[in-house]
Design a protein that fits this description.
With about 90 residues, this protein is an alpha+beta fold. The chain is about 25% helix and about 20% strand. It contains four helices and six strands. Strands 1-6 form a two-stranded antiparallel sheet. β3 and β4 form a beta hairpin.
Length: about 90
Amino acid sequence: MNINEKLASLKYNKDNESHLSVDNDICMRCKNRCCTYICPANVYEWNEEKCTMTIRYENCLECGACKIACEKNNILWKYPNVEYGVKFKNG
């Protein structure tokens, strides 16, 4: 099973508010934007035309890789509200 198949098998309970945020001004000055490729769930996507970071927080696996990898320390990361986020076990 590849990573995309594994990710597709996870269940999420989407909250209406994001548990992730960034300062787009800081993202604009970042040369690597490593969050766009370090995240296994592709939560972050840089829009070059609008100079904004799109955050698909509802796909977050809550692994924290983005926060650790961000060289600008620009990702405000917290756990989702209770009962929301990824569900690793079904049942």
